[in-house]
Amino acid sequence: MDHFSSVVDNNDSPEACIRREAMEETGYQVDKVQKLFEAYMSPGGVTELVYFFAAEYHPDQKITDEVGVEDEVIEVVELPFHDALAMVADGRIKDGKTIMLLQYAQIHFFPSSLTPQRC
């Protein structure tokens, strides 16, 4: 399980790209997107810069149930934030970008959910 993503075309801004991908991969038309941070996934190995965004949405913004393009198989999953964190903890979410995004959200949007863990 992971978040949706795309490659930014030379003619697109990262914001335009994320809005397009939200529509293509979830069926939702999001208006306001908030850039959270940028990160290199493997500095020194690749020069790919990844942009991380968040956006609020409402059921009224659902435009289509047809998601993905051609051979993509996409299942849109909506779940409570604490369930997503539990999926990181038990290994069901393994994608590094998704884990970074969830941890950023936990620190900045849900700080009360932070509790010290013993090793």
Description:
The structure is a single chain. With 119 residues, the protein is α+β, with helices and mostly antiparallel strands. The protein has a single domain (14-113), classed as Nucleoside Triphosphate Pyrophosphohydrolase (Alpha-Beta Complex). It has three helices and two strands. It has helices at residues 14-26, 81-89, 96-109; strands spanning 33-40, 49-55. The protein has a two-stranded antiparallel ribbon. The longest helix has 14 residues, at 96-109. The two termini are 26 Å apart. 5% of the residues are buried.
Tell me the CATH architecture. Answer: Alpha-Beta Complex
Q: How far is it from the N-terminal to the C-terminal residue, by CA?
A: 26 Å
Q: Using DSSP, what is the number of strands?
A: 2
Q: What is the helix fraction of residues, given as a range?
A: 25-40%
CATH class: Alpha Beta
What is the CATH homologous superfamily assignment?
Answer: Nucleoside Triphosphate Pyrophosphohydrolase
Strand content: 5-15%
Oligomer: single chain
The tally of structural domains comes to 1
Report Rg.
Answer: 15 Å
Estimate the global geometry from the Cα principal axes.
Answer: globular
Give start-end ranges of low-pLDDT stretches.
none
Average predicted local confidence, pLDDT? 88
GO molecular function: hydrolase activity, acting on acid anhydrides, in phosphorus-containing anhydrides; metal ion binding
Domain Nudix hydrolase: 1-101
Binding site for Mg(2+): 21, 25, 72
GO cellular component, one term: cytosol
Tell me briefly what this model is.
With 119 residues, the chain is of the alpha+beta class. The protein is built from 3 helices and 2 strands, in the order αββαα.
